[in-house]
Amino acid sequence: DTEVTQTPKHLVMGMTNKKSLKCEQHMGHRAMYWYKQKAKKPPELMFVYSYEKLSINESVPSRFSPECPNSSLLNLHLHALQPEDSALYLCASSQDQHSNTGELFFGEGSRLTVL
Amino acid sequence: AQKITQTQPGMFVQEKEAVTLDCTYDTSDPSYGLFWYKQPSSGEMIFLIYQGSYDQQNATEGRYSLNFQKARKSANLVISASQLGDSAMYFCAMREGRNQGAQKLVFGQGTRLTINP
To answer: Of A37, A58, A90, B57, whose CB is crowded by the most CB atoms within 10 A?
Structure first.
């Protein structure tokens, strides 16, 4: 079982809806990530939080709003999305710089459909 | 700018055979890390193996080994004695620089591996 938990697993929303994706890890990792993955494509980085502060924003549209309430939780707030935003949204975490490898641990993703 | 290339969109292999998945990379940073991930149909990205640019020996993890040829900038994944459960999408990824906590991991296009009984 993955140690990064994402909810919901599936989400269908209209373009005027407001919804949120949630991610939780209890491995003590201090970096957390959101990736977006379209069908048959590799994951693309959206945001990175380090020690609960936004560290990297890959020029993501403002209709996606990340939030890191504490070191274990990461949210992605969704508002006024477009059908082309339909994708698998993957959350990940990694250890801080004391880890030599720093591999990312991923959740199973939230599959989003925008109608 | 970093770049990862996986030239095999799909691979078909008989069960119990070994398989090599190709990955080449391009970076001007002398310090970098290379990763391989497996993504089954469930969607989760599963970390398989890591190779640091300064590591002298090829990384191994169980049935997985990484054929690291630094001069050729290649980091091929070798799976020995393939199993039906190895059928999945495989991604090569690279991080420039050492792990500094928050990091930017860039993925190749992936290779879909199918193991035939």
So the answer is: A90
Length of chain A: 115
Sign of torsion over alpha carbons A27, A32, A38, A41: negative
By the 8 A CB rule, do B83 and B15 touch?
yes
Residue B86 backbone dihedrals phi, psi, to 5 degrees = -80, -10
B50–A103 C-beta distance less than 8 A: yes
Amino acid present at B102:
A
Map tokens 């090599």 to a residue. B20
B102–A48 C-beta distance less than 8 A: yes
CA distance A7 to A75: 10
pLDDT digits (tens, 9 = 90+) for B36-78: 999 999 899 999 999 999 999 999 999 999 999 999 999 999 9
CB contacts of A48 in chain B (<8 Å) are 102-104
- Contact pairs from chain A to chain B, CB under 8 Å: 74
